[in-house]
Predict the structure.
Amino acid sequence: MSTVPSIVPEFVESFPSPLQPGVLYVSVPYSTAAHLCCCGCGNEVVTPLSRSQWVLTLDGRVSLRPSIGNWALPCRSHYIIERGQVQWARTFTESQIRTNREDDRRLLAQQRTEPQPTRRSGFAAAIVQALHRIWPPKWRR
Ligand SMILES: [Zn+2]
C-alpha cells in the first residue's frame, strides 16, 4: 500500500467495513470521523469530533484539526488533513513521546538543541506553547 496524498469527506450514519483509503468518513449522529491511516498501513484511525478533541471544517474540502498523531500504531505516522490534502508532519521518536509524557522539561531541552522544523505542526506548536507557559525559556526572562 502507498501513502494517501488527499482525502475526501463522506457523510455516513455508521462507518462501513472495510473503510476505503482516501476517504474521511464523518458520522454526524455519533460526532465521530474515521479514516484509514494515510501512510497506507491499513489501520483505522477514529477521531471523535468535539471542541476538545478534533474539529472538522468543511469548505468544499475537508480539514481536521489538530494534527493526527498515530503514536499507538506501528507506523507512528503524523499528519494534518488540510483542505483535502494530507500534509506530513514531524514524526516524534519513541523517546520523544516518552519524554513528552514523563518529563516536559527534557523535551524542551531537546528541542533547543535539535534543528527546528521550518514549519511546526499544530500539535508540536501547541506542546511548545504549553511548555513555554509552565516553564518559560531562559531567553525570555
Ligand atoms: Zn499508518
User: Anything to note?
Assistant: The longest strand covers residues 62-69. The mean pLDDT is 82. Helices lie at 94-102, 104-113, 122-134.
